[in-house]
Amino acid sequence: MNTSNTCANCGKEGNDVTNTCNKCKSVMYCNAACKKRHRSKHKKECERRVAELHDEKLFKQPQPLEDCPICMIRLPTLGTGQTYMPCCGKVICCGCLHAFRSRATKQEHDLCPFCRTPPTYSNGEYIKRYKKRVEMNDIRAMCSLGRYYALGQYGLPQNSSKAFELYHRAGELGNADAYTNVGGMYMIGEGVDVNGKMGVHYLELAVIGGSSIGRLNLGNLEARLGNTDRALKHYMIAVKDGDTDSLKKVKHLYQNGQATKDDYAKALRSYQAYLEEIKSDQRDEAAAANATYKYYESSYASRPSRVFPMDLLPSL
Question: pTM for the full model?
Answer without folding.
Answer: 0.84
